[in-house]
TrEMBL record:
GO terms for cellular component: membrane. It is a multi-pass membrane protein. The keyword Isomerase does not apply. This is Phosphatidic acid phosphatase type 2/haloperoxidase domain-containing protein. The chain crosses the membrane at residues 20-39, 59-81, 93-114, 159-175, 187-206, 218-236. Residues 93-233 form the Phosphatidic acid phosphatase type 2/haloperoxidase domain. GO terms for molecular function: phosphatidate phosphatase activity.
Length: 307
């Protein structure tokens, strides 16, 4: 067994650079949430698709961290209690955090660069319902600064991308752990695998129902999150359909090292190592021949086998 107590410190030290990069990603994500998005031209004739009412979020932003990050980590710990593999626990948490943060950075970077207005942009821009335009027919907003800034962050959907990153990673993890693709045709296993993906899809639907995103935003966000989750998962784990898909690469490498260290040394020239060592010791016992006046007779005695 490779537990947290026996191998936890070693595993964490071997991935200290990964944790440092993870910290840098957190800082980058914070900075991206401070930067103002590109204020795209919004003409009067475009307002017909941007006059949906402002509604509260069905899924609040704090809930995304609960079901997309905290819930998978709890499940990872439950499997650790069963398997007792610190490699599995460490790599699953590290892979999940990388998936969520990379997805968040890609999503927010695209949001800032594109600056697409949300479906409820009209009421963010003109909270009193009185629309004003300049000589180029571009909007002259007089709404709250925060609402205006968020109103230009429609593409892609952050809720959806984060949901598919976290729950998509969890789906792949469960598929490997329960051997969903073991060619035995257990549909119940597939239902378990699809459940996190269904939850992520419903979050995406809620973003359209709340008039916070267009359907294209949700589709792009879901695809982005799922692709990043798959790449991050395969960085640490074999594909779920693989024979060893239930554990990380590092777990099997550690098992191989344990087996190789417990095996006896390989034979040399067909003889076991301990036999070769004793033979070498015998060969090192040379006969010392004293040289002096009777050296020639002594050598003859050696040759005759008397010594």
């Amino acid at each position: 067994m490779h537990t947290i107590r026996s191998h936890g410190t070693t595993v964490a030290r071997s991935h200290k650079h990964d944790w440092f990069i993870l910290l840098l990603l957190v800082i980058i994500e914070i900075i991206l949430n401070i930067i103002h998005p590109f204020y795209r031209f919004v003409g009067k004739d475009m307002m017909s698709d941007l006059k949906y009412p402002m509604k509260d979020n069905t899924v609040p932003i704090w809930a995304v961290g609960v079901y997309a990050v905290l819930l998978p980590i709890i499940i990872f710990n439950l499997f650790y209690i069963w398997r007792r593999s610190v490699y599995d626990l460490h790599h699953s948490i590290l892979g999940l955090l990388f998936a969520v943060l990379i997805t968040g950075i890609l999503t927010d970077s695209i949001k800032l660069a594109v600056g697409r207005p949300r479906p409820d942009f009209f009421w963010r821009c003109f909270p009193d319902g009185k629309d004003v335009y300049d000589q180029f027919s571009n909007v002259v907003c007089h709404g709250k600064t925060h609402e205006m800034r968020e109103g230009h962050k429609s593409f892609p959907s952050g809720h959806t991308s984060w949901s598919f990153a976290g729950l998509g990673f969890l789906s792949l993890y469960l598929a490997g752990k329960i051997r969903a693709f073991d060619r035995k045709g257990h549909i119940a296993k597939l239902c378990i695998v699809y459940l996190p993906l269904l939850a992520a899809a419903l979050v995406g639907v809620s973003r359209v129902d709340d008039y916070r995103h267009h359907w294209q935003d949700v589709f792009a966000g879901g695809l982005l999150g799922l692709v990043v989750a798959t790449i991050c998962y395969l960085q640490f784990f074999p594909p779920p359909y693989h024979t060893d898909g239930w554990g990380p690469y590092a777990h099997f490498d550690a098992l191989d090292e344990t087996r190789s260290s417990s095996l006896p040394a390989p034979p040399v020239n067909g003889f076991p190592m301990h036999v070769m060592q004793s033979q070498s010791a015998r060969n090192s016992e040379f006969v010392t021949v004293p040289l002096g006046q009777n050296s020639s007779s002594t050598l003859r005695d050696v040759e005759a086998g008397r010594m």
